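Example record used in the benchmark description.
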Amino acid sequence: MNHYLWRMRGYFRQVAGQLLLGSLAGIVMNTMVVMPAILLGRAIDAVLAMERGEASASQVGWAALAFAGGVLLHEGPRIGKRWWLMTANARIRANVRADALRGVLSWPMSRLHNIPIGDLMARIIGDIEVLGVGVREFTIETWDTVLFSCSLVVAMLAYDAGLTVLALLPVPAAMILAKVAGRWVRERTTEARESNAALTATLQERLSGIRVLRLFGCTQATVERLAALSQEQASANLATVRLREGLKPVYTTLMTAGVVLVVWLSGRKVIAGSMTIGAFVAYLELYLRFVGRGFRVPQLVN
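Model output (structure tokens):
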């Protein structure tokens, strides 16, 4: 992965300004992701304190304003992050596509004559699509998944380190599963791209020689050949989708397995008085946000 990213450094330099601004916005956004949950918990505690006569209405109002400010501080940078990073990713894909076209046009005619045009087109389009996914994962998910998850884990540790360690015990299992499944994902993605290239090349060759096929009576055989290739492509794509989508519930199950411990142990602490209701709500919100996005970490590894 690092080797390919190093080879892409020229394309990253072309959009360095957008990547820098988008990354700064992503850092602010995913560092402040803990603020809405924390400030919501404090607002709840302020309301309960006012109910007991231990706080004034102005204190509740300030807590509500702080919660609104925390939400704005988290959601505001999202606009800049999405604009700059998504625009940068689109420019990188466009530049790679243009360079691929220039590279093919510079080939000698003898090389072009020996390569099926359909196969060449399918492979270039497929390669750029896969490359675009990798660049997007590297430039966007580094902040939206890795930094996002780290911020939530640090906040949960600050609330209750012991409970956090117990609740996150299944997470390493999900990471190991992602490492094992990565080979399967790569193999099936490659098979899908190869079957698509074979079908495209066959279509291009047969359509360009349709008169010859009709002259020698090979039309039916060609139709059967294309039908077989289409079925192979469909099977390869379905296998890829089944594996990718089938892993999501497995990851999510492993990530959310600790919610029982969170509710049980935190509930006991609230009853015992060692944790406030607001802190319980804040901790549960932090944990649910982590598991709601945490399954993307194993997918990012793949």
